[in-house]
Amino acid sequence: xxxxxxxxxxxxxxxxxxxxxxxxxxxxxxxxxxxxxxxxxxxxxxxxxxxxxxxxxxxxxxxxxxxxxxxxxxxxxxxxxxxxxxxxxxxxxxxxxxxxxxxxxxxxxxxxxxxxxxxxxxxxxxxxxxxxxxxxxxxxxxxxxxxxxxxxxxxxxxxxxxxxxxxxxxxxxxxxxxxxxxxxxxxxxxxxxxxxxxxxxxxxxxxxxxxxxxxxxxxxxxxxxxxxxxxxxxxxxxxxxxxxxxxxxxxxxxxxxxxxxxxxxxxxxxxxxxxxxxxxxxxxxxxxxxxxxxxxxxxxxxxxxxxxxxxxxxxxxxxxxxxxxxxxxxxxxxxxxxxxxxxxxxxxxxxxxxxxxxxxxxxxxxxxxxxxxxxxxxxxxxxxxxxx
Amino acid sequence: xxxxxxxxxxxxxxxxxxxxxxxxxxxxxxxxxxxxxxxxxxxxxxxxxxxxxxxxxxxxxxxxxxxxxxxxxxxxxxxxxxxxxxxxxxxxxxxxxxxxxxxxxxxxxxxxxxxxxxxxxxxxxxxxxxxxxxxxxxxxxxxxxxxxxx
Lengths: 388, 150
Known about the structure:
- The complex is a heterodimer.
- By secondary structure, chain A is of the alpha+beta class.
- Chain A is about 35% helix and about 20% strand.
- Chain A has helices at about 30-45, 65-70, 85-100, 120, 125-130, 145-160, 160-175, 190-195, 225, 260-270, 290-295, 305-310, 335-340, 345-355; strands at about 10-20, 55-60, 75-80, 105-110, 200, 205, 215-220, 235-240, 280-285, 315, 320-325, 325-330, 370-375, 380-385.
- In chain A, the strands form three sheets. Chain A has a nine-stranded mixed beta sheet with strand order 3-2-4-7-1-8-14-13-9, with helices on both faces. Chain A has a three-stranded antiparallel beta sheet with strand order 10-11-12.
- The two termini of chain A are about 30 Å apart.
- Chain B is about 10% helix and about 35% strand.
- In chain B, the strands form two sheets. Chain B has a five-stranded antiparallel beta sheet, with no helix packed on it. In chain B, strands 2-1-3 form a three-stranded antiparallel beta sheet.
- Chain B folds into two domains: about 5-65, no CATH class; about 70-145.
- Chain B has helices spanning about 5-15, 25-30, and strands at about 35-40, 45, 60-65, 70-80, 95-100, 110, 125-135, 135-145.
- Chain B has two helices and eight strands.
- The interface between A and B is medium-sized, with 30 and 34 residues.
- Strand 5 (about 200) of chain A pairs antiparallel with strand 4 (about 70-80) of chain B.
């Protein structure tokens, strides 16, 4: 039962967002240091002090660490939700709307962890943060294997090709060239994409998000209060975290009944606008296959048609997607090229685009944005945003 | 007569796998080369992975029940690299298949395929259950069934 009730609509705003930028190498820094830098930047740029914050929301590092490190005197609400980052947005917006707190500092540090990259494993301080313990069996379907398996199903059902996945990666890379915060800023061709090392067929190295060090931070407060702060408030129009009962990777009935369809249905019922009125679109891209499915599921095209749709909406000059010659997709470079931020980068860029602060990536006159984060199984989520 | 093995020993044998009070019987079954899947005594519904109640009717009477092991490949991938595992070196990409079991639509089990060329491991092919040993514990795997697939 997907409801349409949405009393929080436009009552809560993202007042500001900041980033450290991202690097695809082991920095000599802790995740705490990265997150705190972004937190300090966003609070200063919003003209707020530690005493103005009464809510904290983040996963890496934990809320108690951030409160202590920033000397935030008292909070009346905090949470350490699971990634991806629309979970944090949903929690913070709910807390502000319900009055559990007024000003939330939300943040996320992306960090190259020892279980994720071989070079991170060489850093003793990263190893100390934890490894995967007993390695999982190769046949374990969680995580990367599950997405790869559904990629095999997608290619089989729709006769799609590796090139279709490649468009997603190339679009992200072309966009990242104009984002100083992005980790990957060398142009990518289809030949580059197809020649990349195969990791788990049918997905190769360039189908997977890039492990990075860096952090994003956000100030989330009432729309009323945000209007008195220095930057244009980005109003949260609708949010959904979607999931179905068959949410274990290999038991999901099909690509046509996943958390993504639930998110889309909920957002369409609760939001004041949808794709026809979106100025910029942020589909998750932790794996290329996720993006093709989001593009189909939000309604830009039908099932299995994303490859052809992208081809039809390809901006040859920019070597990137421009839907209807107008709407860019992940203009910051996404998880595949800005860096694997578990959605915080998508959200931050949405904020900066709607505030008119996206530099040479700025979508002229952008007033609405749609973010659809996460994958298929237990982490599909989305939100719509607008400015006054 | 099922193999007698203490919980302590069972947990050690299947270290790193999702073994708990609800799944121990499934891993015990492996010692006898039985692939067990939870089935509801009341409504007959199978479910995967093992849960303590039936997701369809909420009955607590769920019994780990042998499946025949025949099925159809629903998804198929090939790992060019991956976690260390005995007998897996990835010089030939390691197949991982999700098989739709014959017992019930949408009931699936994921494992590898043995005794086949990777080129022959394709979505739609029929498979049957087989067993190998890995790190001293039996592992349910699949083998391509004779004859053409779908």
